[in-house]
Design goal:
- Helices cover 78% and strands 0% of the residues.
- It contains 18 helices and no strands.
- Helix 10 runs antiparallel to helix 11, helix 14 packs antiparallel against helix 15 and helix 16 packs antiparallel against helix 17.
- It starts with a helix and ends in a 6-residue tail after the last helix.
């Protein structure tokens, strides 16, 4: 009887080991749905005895199921409070759930247990981006890139942080470095154009925007952004017809946006096409009604059209919104 009972236990243990190995193989092979379900079974059969919960969380992250990943990690950390790996993963999940302050606290707790890796420094930097603290974002993204210089995404995000800080020379250098690492990185090419335009180098910016468009078209992964950015660049020249065509293509790709419609309205207004300009600005206002500058621009068109009462109403809304959000740029 004793030997039979031991044999049963041994068989159960072997089955559990086989299930765990199958789950780990599924995760390693990027079969995330299969891995998530298998690790859930491992945990149900032997609660708290393996690292199935953080591994299941990894699979859930790849499935964009961040709330469930957080629940797995919370459960695991209740019984494994000194797991640095779980805390780093938890910090990442909080970042993906747009909770940067909580994420930073978790990364700090994890760092007390084990030194962060380059990827961790990168996410910390991006937490500071979410908090609009760009000096600290630059600090940690620089740290990440120094430890992982071939991480094209880290280099790109560092360039973005430099750009927001108006450090355009460093931004250009970072985007060019990202493009050396990945010449088909359309976002880096587009942002290179933005930085060059900010430095008043329109010819070079146009080349970058057109390369970004070409990359997207070749990969069949178009983004509306380089079209809008190129349209904005051309709107300040005598090539406004091309700018409007680019805005039409941007709309076909990504739908209407307040920025694109604002730009369309400004071009049409400069051409004295007042009814079309009014329609564009009204669309922009409908997409972002709390942006005071849009109400002002609409009011300006209405005033030119002789619609004084409607114009005064838009000017009043613009003034009220600007007073309510004095720190928000229009």
């Amino acid at each position: 009887m004793c030997c039979a009972f031991a044999a049963v236990l041994s068989g159960q243990s072997q089955a559990d080991d086989d299930l765990y190995k199958a789950a780990k193989a599924a995760l390693d092979n990027k079969h995330y749905q299969e891995a998530e379900q298998a690790f859930a079974s491992v945990e149900a059969r032997s609660p708290g005895t393996t690292n199935a919960l953080p591994l299941r969380a990894q699979a859930l992250i790849h499935l964009n199921r961040f709330e469930q990943a957080q629940q797995c990690l919370e459960t695991y950390l209740n019984t494994h409070p000194n797991s640095a790996e779980a805390k780093y993963l938890y910090g990442y999940v909080l970042f993906r759930r747009d909770k940067p302050s909580e994420s930073l606290r978790m990364y700090t707790a994890a760092a007390a247990l084990e030194r962060p890796k380059a990827e961790d420094f990168k996410v910390v930097g991006l937490d500071y981006v979410l908090l609009s603290d760009y000096p600290d974002a630059v600090r940690w993204l620089e740290k990440s890139v120094s430890e992982s210089p071939n991480d094209v995404e880290g280099v790109y995000y560092l360039g973005r942080a430099y750009y927001v800080e108006n450090d355009f020379d460093k931004a250009i250098a970072a985007f060019e470095r990202a493009l050396r690492l990945d010449p088909q990185y359309a976002k880096a090419e587009n942002n290179l154009g933005l930085a060059l335009a900010a430095k008043n180098e329109p010819a070079a910016a146009e080349v970058a925007y057109r390369k970004a468009i070409q990359i997207g078209e070749a990969a069949r992964e178009k983004s509306d952004q380089p079209y809008v950015n190129l349209a904005e660049l051309l709107s300040h020249t005598d090539r406004q017809a091309e700018a409007l065509s680019l805005l039409d293509e941007a709309e076909r790709i990504g739908g209407k946006s307040d920025h694109a419609e604002e730009l369309r309205g400004q071009i049409l207004f400069s051409q004295n096409r007042l009814a079309d300009a009014e329609a564009a600005f009204r669309t922009a206002v409908s997409l972002k009604p709390d942006k005071g500058a849009l109400h002002y621009l609409l009011g300006r068109v209405l005033k030119r059209e002789g619609k004084s009462a409607d114009a005064d109403n838009e000017f009043a809304q613009s003034k009220a919104l600007s007073a309510a959000h004095p720190s928000l740029p229009d």
